[in-house]
Structures are given as structure tokens and as C-alpha cells.
Amino acid sequence: MKTLNLGERSIALDKDGYLVDLDDWSTEVATALAAAEEIELSPEHWEVLELLRGFYNEFQLSPATRPLIKYTALKLGADKGNSLHLNRLFKGTPAKLAAKLAGLPKPTNCL
Fold first, then answer.
1. Are 77 and 63 in contact (CB under 8 A)?
2. What does the pLDDT average to over 49-74?
3. Is 9 a catalytic site residue?
4. How far apart, in whole angstroms, are the C-alpha atoms of residue 77 and residue 87?
5. Contact 90, 76 (CB under 8 A)
6. What are 19-29's pLDDT values in tens digits?
7. Which of 2, 52, 84, 91 could form an S-S bond across to 13 if both were Cys, CB 3.0 to 4.6 Å?
8. What are residue 5's DSSP bridge partners?
């Protein structure tokens, strides 16, 4: 099992780098996970991460790419809810990487 070390805290990650305990998530954890992916979180990133956390609270699952795009378009508008925008923010793997940074489980249909 992998760990993410934040000061005195050691946070358990699964083999793919997702949080083992979803309650370990915080903005500090998200920032550290993003740094490990060589991403500096912008307000646009945070907007999607908060949206994803809301989706998970509502449906108890992490959306795959198509539902993520549709949900983002529904909540944030077509200019942000499209594959080009989300791929740019999350290195071409928006469903997997955004879920990881949002402290959510890996989407079930993502390899």
C-alpha cells in the first residue's frame, strides 16, 4: 500500500494512488495529490473537484467520463462541460484523475 505524507499525517493510498479512506480528503490532500501528478490546482480545477464531490454525495459513485461531462455541462454550462476543457484540466483522463484529486474512488468502468 502506498502512502501520502503530509507533515505528521500519513494517508493510506491504494495501488493506483486513490485514498483508501475517503474521510482523509481535504484541500491540503488534494493539493498534494495534484502536485504528485504535476498539476497546480487552479480555480477551474477546484470547481470540478467540488462538483465531483457533490456528485458522489448524491449518487455514491464516481462518474465515468461521459456522465462527468454531462453533469459538468448541466451544473457549470457547456463551456466547461465538454471533453476539451476537462481533458485540458486533467491531462486527458478527466474521470480518473479528477476522482483521485477529489478524494473519490476510481470510477468503476475506468481501466
1. no
2. 95
3. no
4. 16
5. no
6. 999 999 999 99
7. 2
8. 10
Query: Closest Cα partner for 81 from 110, 101, 52?
Result: 52
| Distance separating alpha carbons of residues 47 and 50, to the nearest angstrom | 5
Q: Which residues 6+ apart lie within 8 Å of 80 measured at CB? A: 44, 47, 48, 72, 73
37, 81, 110, 111: the active-site residue: 110
pLDDT for the residue numbered 111:
52
Task: State pTM to two decimals.
Answer: 0.93
d(CA 44, CA 32): 17
Instruction: Using CB atoms within 10 Å of the CB of residue 41, give its burial: 0 to 12 exposed, 13 to 18 middle, 19+ buried.
Output: middle
Mean pLDDT to the nearest integer, 1-30? 94
Confidence of residue 108 (pLDDT cuts 50, 70, 90): confident
Residue with cell 484540466: 89
Tell me the three cell numbers of residue 84.
476539451
Contact 22, 106 (CB under 8 A): no
Average pLDDT over residues 64-74: 94
Coil, strand, or helix at residue 67? helix
